[in-house]
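Handout, page 2. Input:
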Amino acid sequence: MFDEMFEWVFHWLCDFLWCRFETVTDLFSVSIRFNGGNPQVFKVQYINVTLKGLKDQLDEINQRLNPGNTRRVEYIWYERPTLDGGRITFSRLELKNGDDVRNMFSIFWQHNMFPWIDMFVTLLRSPEYFLNSLIPLEDHD
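Output:
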């Protein structure tokens, strides 16, 4: 009897740890709105990601959606859920540094209440784009 129970617990624990390991190595689903557009759902890497790394991933996604678009990710906000007295409310928070990014993924990974993170991304043109689009002054000599 003890051996059967031990074997069952051992297999359950292995399955549990394997599922956790798979979850840790997976990508995280995010619903992205670029400049207030329609939401697009993608997967982003979240292990050891920095703010710059997340911006780079979002830039790549924008380039796939809009080939030739030179705009870059400048600001990222996300909707953070809070459970209070049986009611879920959302706060929109800006990601300003790597700690903010890690906290965001940690909150969603630990609670696993929502299938994705809602992100709101502002794309801006690069300074090079503006410099290249300037009309040179005519020389009146």
